């Protein structure tokens, strides 16, 4: 059987040159698959045509923006998905969706192989390949950058050799991945951790603090899903887009972090995710009002584990699925409005209202109307601390250092 | 035996009137104990004298600022202590220290009772009383506000009745607790969650975004302890004080949150903790560089549990002590410098350097000098995902909804 | 409005005398509610009549055996519910069901109060009262043993005083709670932790090792639910009953433990739960075959938290509900047969088969047919350990004690 | 530089033939290192000589029994180290110690390579290689069975070809790893999960239930370390050896499990670990008496994570080290005696006594002398359940399914 390689195609130099290269290496032909995930930039039809120009036998473009927002970004909002408490999983949640469409294309077009452009030291190879094998282990996987040590220099030389009809774009110092959920930037000078990022690293956000007037936004959620902004109904995609615009204009959503990659190394990463971070922050604030304390405490652990699982490429795993069930159940009452101010890089939540609120004015107030039975507290405190009291007594009686003196 | 009540004395109206009131209720006398925790405001000698004027048989003032910084704030930095991911435990860590000194005073002055001014619906009663019983369960505890339903109105009436020589301060709408680590504010109008806080709620921080020039700071840590700011050696107390000043001037460190109290209710709280939040943020950024991935992941769970334990009043508990041992061990390599910019309410970390860094340029770089063995990655990815691959195959073969399609 | 007390009625001396006592204390009347949870012993009609004889205005008996098995025992099997890794929550899961029926009776018969016979130092008061308030906080709660310091001696004196028509049963040294899921025993001589239990403590189990022939059983599960024993279809109730009989005959299911009560003290408890422990052991063994590794690891944490939540009286809590969702999702594939041998107090699992098995002979075998790609392992091991390798190098280079030498 | 391979040498056929094979493949010479970990069987001097006969340039034997017991088994006791709640890490804890001695030998004898006999589908390759790289990443690693697809058949053919002076032992169906802490058995017929193990699989344990008289043992611990058996002082090694003998004679300590390997597959394993399992069971029972409730609950999570970390080959990792610190602190009070009966495969704990006990008779008893303040309980229960009560009210008021009805 002839090889047919289904390639995750971005339209850039590397994957363009990969088309003839993969054809040559496998002796087969190449189907290019490009997804519109709201990454902006070039027109998708141009991307599609370029793949054909480079020799692809088929080239398809899929508008997956709403699918991405509804099935990949929304669960991330509900899980307050932040790896290392910071990174909203920008690339991590796009890879499983791209994979899903590549596998579908392979089934439609008789693909025998799937291919991606990732190197061997990043996370994305893991996310692609674990997902490929989860969805269709019969497909062979080719990662030229890793498996053939295929570098940009080799790609350029090969393009010239075969007179590939593409222009080499002006060399950019940045390596970028972006979609509607956010933008990831790597670049050589940031490999020195002491260097600060420069302004040209950013595209989704303005410099904070330029004197814009503060922007007050009310985000409404139903069962953990953003459904309106300032009272106007929105889809999840529209919510992300509008907040990318408004929060981005205020410089909100920049990250500069040192990240623990799954492959065992640390790397420096710059991210911009104005919409994502604003939505997660608002969602957390609403959970603070609508989730019972012990559920909230345990959900924070669950959220952290969910984020690690997704970061580690295990979107299509059994554990992810059970964590999803936990989270879905917890969202039943996460309904209400969060008012926040976007300004100078900051998100300031300053108002919440919810028909599902667990905040009870009559219990919380110190003013007239207080319904809290303070007499219950005395006994509560006594038994709450009893096991600690007994342990400290044991320590003192035994001449041990006690928990109390910390020695 | 005559009662002798050792009272946690703040110098304010309530605890001042409590002196004669406790004497009357117990038929004994009262020893006033005041701690300087860097709360600022009135001169401590005036506080000490006022207690005597109100009838205390002894009145002592303890300068516990350095003890507080070194033994209570520093562990909080090392645990990245944030309850509900936000609140740096401002009051929660002061109560066990105040308790410790009250118990010492009781032992010195023959106290039979200890007393605090907290109500029955807050967390501080728990922190005081669990700590009292841990340190000396033979002391009886009196909480007049809770146990005698002793209100401010009753206090004022009683003060007039006995002609107590104190002036009633102008009534403030705010109920405040503050120390060098931060400031907590409650007030009636914020009991409506939809109301935003007004400027007069704040004292440790300026309004963000007033056009101050950004302030760049380098904080140096040794084994998780802040030891220098901009190259100048500091004690922990000095670090907090300097950053309170500099971060506060930039509007950094304000919190507006709905909090899950231990007694089972939700409450609205405003906090300011410019130094605390800056130090914890810097410490986290340094941990990102110096802690190995799995240690870092597990430490985040440990930090969260530590914060809940301390919030819940269990500072002197056996679990806290074992969590401390975990955290102490983890800090061995948390040494290095963090550069950050304070501006317009934001803390922006933009540089890290550490002799203990686990970041390895030669493994991370995509440029010349790359030492990462990419050939290892292929097999890694394959086995990393194998159990998920097998599970998905089982699902498909059995006609089950698969983890992969999420249905 | 006149008081009407709905009483959890067991038929024993204490709750019998409580009927006139509660009537007297409240000036109202008493409705007795008794549940058949498979506890055996006395005929339920006699129990019902006795309540009337003691003065109850209504006395109802509810056969809740299947409801208990299906809605309370089955989730415990699926959560491998063992508090402190040992105790299968015998009383802990019965209290929320009894509460539910009491609240229903209160709604039906116009009850204003609910009442239970528990003391103030046990867990059951918590389970009853938290559940009462969750289901209907408008009902007042009376716990005579705790709230009125109502002791057995007082009960007997009162019964004599009012000439209550009940006989005082021969005094037993044991305090017992039992249902089809198990039996709990407390008794004075076991309050010395060094004393071993004597044979007369047990009723559900024979002495182990009496020379019975080993009993081999095959338990079949569908989605985590026991559906057949030795090929014969059973309800959950029947499964428990049959295994109570067969495992009990082999001395399986005895526990002697020191338990951490929620109220802060430790207590010595003897339990017998032959059916429960056999079913949970079989269920765990089937999960070992059918759950993917990371799901299994995380589910163990979830199971432990579920067990603590239920032990602590929080059956009707939001966290319990989200944990249930996680567990329910995980049970999708827990289908298959477990063969085990019951003998001399032991449960020995020695065979498993499952159409949903994740065990893959071709990957596991060392014989002909091995399909495992060993070449993948080398790279896997290298990157799996890379972050540890880098950390140890850092330690050595810095002259630090290394993780490797443990010093 | 000439290659010099330091080989983990067992004395068996495979590693014997590996000596000339490694010399041939590397063009260098081979140093054989054998550890006495209490595995019994052949005299260690014969093992040492055989390596020389097979061509090793050096052959050393290290008596590491006490080191193994004190530094590897003891931490496992203190962590109640059981992977998947069952497997006491028999091979998992020996690999890091063997590695340590191989690295020392490499440094002493100028080794350039280290080598082990593990295949590419097991856990032990991971444990060896992660530890090698942690301790000395400059050493090259050779795993002939995996890297050269070196099988037993090839080994025999090679031995004949070069006329190696070793006899081929009678072929055994079992693949075995054993040391004083336990024994692991794999064999072809158990690769069918429905087959039960046969008697000849076992060597450390007798068949249970043969009518031996029950054996009552008292094990004494100091700070989590076993120090005496039946009142006679023992080293940790002696404790394990004596309990291997006594528990083994009663058939205690057999395991038959399906295990989740780190490389992603499930495997069937038979283990025997009579001493290990008895010691861990006793240690757990003593912790039940001496650890405060919340510490005990959290330690169970920590123990599980510790066990996974060690199982996964990460003995020399930073996380393991911090977990060790937590566990070490928790053992401060784990001092006392546990009495248990070994009989017919069972371990029955029936007595505990400890000068560090947290069990308080006066709080636990229902008899005269009860010191528990029951009046505190009413308020405790009320606030313990308050957040659940509020959440259920919210659900009912909103017409939502409530946590209470589980629908």
From TrEMBL, chains A, B, C, D:
Protein origin, superkingdom: Bacteria
Example GO BP: L-arginine biosynthetic process
Main location: cytoplasm
Location of the protein in the cell: Cytoplasm
Pfam family of the protein (one): Arginosuc_syn_C
Record-annotated Arginosuccinate synthase-like N-terminal domain positions: 4-165
Binding site for L-aspartate: 119, 123-124
Annotated InterPro entries: Arginosuc_syn_C, Arginosuc_syn_N, Arginosuc_synth, Arginosuc_synth_CS, Arginosuc_synth_type_1_subfam, AS_cat/multimer_dom_body, Rossmann-like_a/b/a_fold
Catalyzed reactions: L-citrulline + L-aspartate + ATP = 2-(N(omega)-L-arginino)succinate + AMP + diphosphate + H(+)
Positions bound to ATP: 8-16, 117
Name the record gives this protein: Argininosuccinate synthase
């Amino acid at each position: 059987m002839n090889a047919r390689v289904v390639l995750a195609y971005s339209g850039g130099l590397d994957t363009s040159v990969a088309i003839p290269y993969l054809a040559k290496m496998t002796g087969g032909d190449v189907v290019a698959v490009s997804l519109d995930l709201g990454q902006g930039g070039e027109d998708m039809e141009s991307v599609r045509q370029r793949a054909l120009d480079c020799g692809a036998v088929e080239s398809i473009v899929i508008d997956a923006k709403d699918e991405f927002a509804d099935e990949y970004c929304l669960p991330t909002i509900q899980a307050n998905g932040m790896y290392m408490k910071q990174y909203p999983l920008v690339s991590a949640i796009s890879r499983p969706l791209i994979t899903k469409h590549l596998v579908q294309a392979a089934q439609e077009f008789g693909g025998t192989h799937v291919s991606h452009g990732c190197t061997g030291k990043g996370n994305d190879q893991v996310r692609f390949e674990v997902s490929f094998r989860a969805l269709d282990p019969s497909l062979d996987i080719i990662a030229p950058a890793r498996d053939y040590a295929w570098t940009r220099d080799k790609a350029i030389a090969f393009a010239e050799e075969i007179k590939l009809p593409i222009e080499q774009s002006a060399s950019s110092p940045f390596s970028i991945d972006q979609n509607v959920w956010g933008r990831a930037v790597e670049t050589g000078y940031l490999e020195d951790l002491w260097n600060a990022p420069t302004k040209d690293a950013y595209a989704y956000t303005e410099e904070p603090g330029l004197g814009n007037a503060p922007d007050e936004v009310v985000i409404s959620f139903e069962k953990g899903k953003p459904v309106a902004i300032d009272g106007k109904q929105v889809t999840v995609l529209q919510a992300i887009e509008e907040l990318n615009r408004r929060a981005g204009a205020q410089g909100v959503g920049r990250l500069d972090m040192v990240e623990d990659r799954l492959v065992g190394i640390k790397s420096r990463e710059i991210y911009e995710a104005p919409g994502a971070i604003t939505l997660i922050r608002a969602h957390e604030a609403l959970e603070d009002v609508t989730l019972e304390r012990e559920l909230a405490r345990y959900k924070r652990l669950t959220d952290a584990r969910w984020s690690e699982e997704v970061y580690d490429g295990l979107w299509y795993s059994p554990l992810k699925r059970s964590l999803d069930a936990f989270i879905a159940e917890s969202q039943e009452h996460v309904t209400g409005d969060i008012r926040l101010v976007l300004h100078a890089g900051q998100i300031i939540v300053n108002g919440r209202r919810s028909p599902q609120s667990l905040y009870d004015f009559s219990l919380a107030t110190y003013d007239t109307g207080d319904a809290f039975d303070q007499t219950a507290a005395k006994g509560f405190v006594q038994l709450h601390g009893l096991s600690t009291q007994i342990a400290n007594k044991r320590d003192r009686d035994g001449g041990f250092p006690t928990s109390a003196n910390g020695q």
